[in-house]
What does this fold into?
Amino acid sequence: MNNEGTMKSFMKGAVLLTIAGFIVKLLSAVYRVPFQNLVGDQGFYIYQQVYPFIAIFGIWTSYGFAVAISKLLADTSESAHRSILRIAFVYVAVISISVFVLLFFGAELLAGWMGDAQLGRLLRVGAFAVLLMAPLAILKGFFQSRNNMAPVAYAQIIEQGLRVSVILVGTWIVVSRGFSLYAAGQMAMLGAVVGGLGAMVVLLFYFRSHVAFLKQHSTIQIWSIVKKMTIISLSVSMSSLILMLFQLVDSFMVFRLLEENGIVQSIAMEQKGIYDRGQPLVQFGILIATSLTLAIVPLVARTSRKKNGRSADMYVRLAFRVSFLFAVAAAIGLTLMMPYVNETLFQTHEQSWTLIIFSWQIIWMSLLLIITAMLHGFGKVRVPAVLLLLGLLVKISSNWLLLPIWGVMGAAVAGNIGLAVIVVGLVFYFKKVWPLQFAPLSYYAWLFGAVSAMSVVVLGWSLVADGYVFNELSSRISAAFTTMTAIPLGAVVFMAIVAKSRIITEKEWYIIPFGRKLATLQLAINSKKIGEKR
It folds into this structure.
């Protein structure tokens, strides 16, 4: 009974964090669209140049360190918790202050390396968000160690909600009053500070009833805690950091290389801004993989340590099959609809081929997130970390080679090459660690059939809709109606074939976040099929 209650509590907490994580990722992907519409491609370029600096440190501390602290607290007696939290706070605070000093006082230097001196103003504002990371990491880690996920989930939603609100409302005020695009970028950076403050207030509110435990004290080895915390935090957050690190590489390379190859500064800014439109599309495309990582991977870690009960193999195969299924559908759907999606969301259809290539990172990122997280569940962190660093080096070298030839399209190709190297290496390593078949050949055959049927329907309808049905409307309105009708139509065709094939069973759908409705749909389709046979 005790184990059953613990598992039920664990599952409830996992579901709550999954929902919160989904909402946060959705907001993170969606807010960039109205923001780009407010500031245009140059304004979007300004924001995207600086955003990775803050995001990388935020992911490492408030996510990676929170998990590390949670694990250390869970693995030690309660009498040692005060010492661990004190060491963790001092350690993360030292890192936070160091990064703050680098960003605030080194703003001009970093901006100069990016080729745009005015970006220093944004770096200084964003630097203040870094100072909040230590208390956020400690508080999140504390609640997670006690399997009390509600405060963490609420804090994540409040943080992102405030951040997005400040970015959009603040940017609208700045732009409408005629201030510069760099001022709009500063307002967007301020959103991260306000969001962090909001999250800290929420977590402190819940923490007030736990203050008494801080009176406990025990002696503990400082270096041992620091070492474990560093290793765990980096290994946990590395897969989430890779997309941000790729963005950081682009911040330093794309604009500068475009200018060095003879493109006028204003045009180079616009080109980089258009290229950055791919970021929210990829973020939206990997939502399924992110949700699966949060929900299924902890189950893999728990079941892999058990000698009896459900095998971890089932969860491993399920995570791969569902992630790959939706990643392929999203990448092909965007390939077919990109000119319409581009114009609908971002006002023009410029560089649609670049964004098509960029969007194929959805497949690589989905697999990367799932496989690295599962390897971490098995305690394998060193090889995945090496592969991620290798992929980053491939991205940098590919940028140097391809940007002068193909411009921003070269950067998109470079991103795919870097991620492909990581994923291929991860698959080979995973097979070595755990030699199982991710999916049978019939899975790939049905998936090919489903995306083929979806492609025919989507392409056919989009040509008819754009050429005849909505051709009397303005270009952007026509693109919007074509997008809003073609995508649901394609999704229905795709899911109908997947449901008929049963390549994901009804029981498996029930394990997946938000999978209950898909299981019900699949049962309805197949029961009709059985009834017809009778």
